[in-house]
Amino acid sequence: PQAAASNGRDMEGARELVELKVIWNKNKYEVTCGLDSTGAELKQRIHSLTGLPPAMQKVMFKGLLPEEKTLREIKVTNGAKIMVVGSTINDVLAVNTPKEAAQQEVKAEENKKEPLCRQKQHRKVLDKGKPDDVMPSVKGVQERLPTVPLSGMYNKSGGKVRLTFKLEQDQLWIGTKERTEKLPMGSIKNVVSEPIEGHEDYHMMAFQLGPTEASYYWVYWVPTQYVDAIKDTVLGKWQYF
């Protein structure tokens, strides 16, 4: 663009010039331009003045300025007002922070203040204490999944639950006294976990079965050594096998 601008200035002595008033974002700019400059060239001049990339400019003079036509062809006269509409990328990013992202940030802040295990819905289950038949945990170690189901855990309603990983069928079976849910691994959107306060060798873990947090299936008292293997298996990383 710099080379183009300097060439433009050298040639302007031999060309018929017009003075334009360019208005963008409540700012006014005086621009001298050759009448035989195209709309695209004018956009480049506006870019050098405002920092607004040509692709993000809407230049208006009696409608949208055609890039391929010259100012002479579209009858731009001395002192003409050229309106420019557009936002720089930084402006767009600043304005368009999605509400959801902002809400997630607020939620994340709240969660930082209050660990999951202190939230009322989880306290109901955790206050029952550690199940008698919970599997032993090994702190500071990552193990591959055992060949037997993970058992002796609670679900959200405080009932006993076991997890069976059917790798040959690519399924996770979530079993309770009443029934067994057979879930394709691919249908589970995410797996989240957090150590249980005061019992950091066990985690509470959720399997996301639908699009929102309301679809989380919570499991409590998961031995810490299996947490990474469960996440990797369900989310499709197979380095453990």
Automatic annotation (TrEMBL):
Signal peptide: none annotated. InterPro entries: UBFD1, UBFD1_C, Ubiquitin-like_dom, Ubiquitin-like_domsf, Ubiquitin_CS. One of its GO terms (molecular function) is RNA binding. Pfam families: PH_UBFD1_C (PF25343), ubiquitin (PF00240). CDD domains: Ubl_UBFD1. Coiled coil: none annotated. Residues 18-85 form the Ubiquitin-like domain. SUPFAM superfamilies: Ubiquitin-like. This is Ubiquitin domain-containing protein UBFD1.
